[in-house]
Task: structure prediction
Amino acid sequence: PQIVSSAHDNGQTVGGRSVLDLIQRLIGDPPRTAERIAESERKDVELARIHYRIAWAAYRSGEFQAATSSAEELLQPGLRTLSLEAGAKMKRDAVEIISDALYEQNEESSIKETFSRKSLVNSVGAIAKEMALRYSAAGIHHRVESVVDLALNAAPMAPEVPDLLAIQASSFRRQNRNG
Result:
C-alpha cells in the first residue's frame, strides 16, 4: 500500500498511465481482490470436502474407479483444507481408499496403471505399503511381490521403499514356511 500510494503521490507513470491505475487494472480493487481470494479459498476447501465425500461414497458402493479418481484429487499438491490436521487426515484417508479400492479390484493392470500416474508419484509408496500389508495379512504372497515390484518401478525413491522391502521379505519367509 505504501509503495502504491507513494508512486501515486509522485505521479509516476508507465506508458502514460499512473502506477496505481496499472496495479488496479492488474489486481482490481484491493478489498475486492481480497474478497475474491477468500471466496476462492472457500471454494477450494469445499471442493476438497466434496472429493473426500465422493471418494468414500464411491468406495462403499463398489465404484472403485470413481473412488480412486476422487481420492487422487485429495493427494494433489496445494490441497486447501480448514487446517493442516484436516488436510493430513484427508491425505491418509485418500491413500487408504486408493489402496483398498485396488486391493478389492485385485487386478494387476489397474494397480500398474494407477501407480504409473504422474499425479500419484509422491503417494505410490504409501499406497503400495497399505496394499502389501493387506495382501500379506491375507496370505496372498504372490500379490505382495507384484505390488512391491510395481511400486519400486514406479517410485524407486519413495520413502516407503525400506518398509516395502521388509514387508516383501516377511511375506517370502511366511510363504516358504507354509508352502
In short: Strands lie at 13-14, 17-18. The radius of gyration is 24 Å. The chain is about 75% helix and 0% strand. The first helix runs from residue 2 to 9.
